[in-house]
Amino acid sequence: MIKIAVMGFGVVGSGVVEVCDKNGSSIQKRAGEEISVSRILDLRDFPESPYRELVTHNFEDILHDPEIAVVAEVMGGLEPAYSYSRALIQAGKSVVTSNKELVSEKGAELLALAKEHNVNYLFEASVGGGIPIIRPLHMCLAANEIDEIAGILNGTTNFILTKMIREQMPFGEALALAQRLGYAERDPSADVDGFDACRKICILASLAYGRHIYPREVHTEGIRAVTLEDVAYAGDWGGVIKLVGRAKRLESGKLAVRVSPAIISHESQLGTVDDVFNGILVRGNATGDVVFYGKGAGKLPTASAVVGDIVDCVKAKGTIRSLTWTPSEGGEVEDYRRSPVTPYIRCRGVHASETVESVFGTVRALHRKDAPRDEYAFVAGEMPQSRVDDGRARLEEDGLEILSTLCVLDY
Ligand code: HSE
């Protein structure tokens, strides 16, 4: 029998314990051994829980228990999760986690430490919840050079945008509904300002390209500024607005990495990923496009990925070498202003179309019902982000008011 511990008895942690219990016999067959949760670390007591006897407030009870071989860190946040994970790995225990904040900041270091101690640091649950994406990237797609990864990586924002698109529900109302349904956090900033999606694309890019890509290097925009007017213009273009995290290898060898709301064709595979679902497109140079789709959040989907990692740790004979990336040397990510982008701009002012053409050349004008006469929305050709920014500044100098800017992606 293999003993495991769970650190954090919140939504995901309780899901991990529940899945281990409920699916115990099939998990045992797949792991080759019985897996038993022997400790649960949390600051709180759970007097009503059938697992209350397992709860401890003392991390040392897990660290110094030689029988505990694998620990699920589902506490979230950088500290104390980082110190605890380091100590556990150094004590020869494998750690599995859903903690995208920690993996996106300290992944290279914790992976190296796990290799040094011949144990595993696995994080399938950190991206895409229950969707298998980490293991496919470093195992099944190992033959490929990855040209590009693009994902709808945050369920909360996808739910909000879906409400805006399908029901013309304004952003604020859709956010309040997401909060009522328990999708968005009370402080929804990590979701709506794009930080959560940023952490996830950093993890995928680090794995795909072999160097740690830090969230601070990635241009990140959220969806607060997206309006129903933009949704209508995107519809006229033949698309929908989604919050997309994207990492693309440029000809220079550098990576263009960004998180921003983007217009994508409603016929594309990512364009049909709605509600709280996530979708991740991986463009391999041998496979072409491979798309992963499913529930990117929630108690049991996320627990499924955590327990899958626990099973892998139990089966693995030592450290899994293909799951790795090295510390960054800096300079892997192309300067955002030099990265290519296809802009959508909505502006207002007299003679807007003539002014826009004088700045951006030929553009595609878009239309929506009941638009004010002086509103003008368009999609221009691909250009570096710096030209978009300079062009916007020139439009303003020429008396136009910029109402919104998005990018258009070619999926
Ligand atoms: N807040 C995240 C989301 C949870 O909405 O996708 C999963 O990481």
What does this structure look like?
The chain is of the alpha/beta class and 411 residues long. It folds into three domains: 2-130 and 300-315, Rossmann fold (3-Layer(aba) Sandwich); 140-295, Dihydrodipicolinate Reductase, domain 2; 340-408, Alpha-Beta Plaits (2-Layer Sandwich), CATH 3.30.70.1710. Helix content is 36%, strand content 25%. It contains 14 helices and 17 strands. The strands form two sheets. Strands 7, 8, 9, 10, 11, 12, 13, 14, 15, 16 and 17 form an eleven-stranded mixed beta sheet that branches. A six-stranded parallel beta sheet has the order 3-2-1-4-5-6, sandwiched between helices. Strand 4 (68-73), helix 4 and strand 5 form a beta-alpha-beta unit. Helix 4 packs parallel to helix 5 (100-116) and helix 7 (155-167) packs across helix 8. The longest helix is centred in the first third of the chain and has 17 residues, at 100-116. The chain is elongated. The mean pLDDT is 96. The chain binds L-homoserine. Residues 129, 154-156, 183, 191, 196, 296-297 line the site of L-homoserine.
* Global Rg: 23 Å
Distance between the termini: 48 Å
The set of bound ligands, ions and cofactors reads: L-homoserine
- The CATH class of the largest domain is Alpha Beta
Low-confidence stretches at least 5 residues in length (pLDDT < 50)? none
Estimated helix fraction? 25-40%
CATH architecture label name of the largest domain: 2-Layer Sandwich
From the helix content, strand content and strand pairing, which structural class follows? alpha/beta
- CATH H level of the largest domain: which superfamily? Dihydrodipicolinate Reductase, domain 2
The proportion of residues in beta strands is 15-25%
- Spatial shape: elongated
According to DSSP, the number of beta strands is: 17
In CATH, the topology of the largest domain is named: Dihydrodipicolinate Reductase, domain 2
The overall pLDDT, averaged over residues, is: 96
Oligomer: single chain
Count helical runs.
Answer: 14
- Biggest β-sheet, characterized? 11 strands, mixed
Number of domains: 3
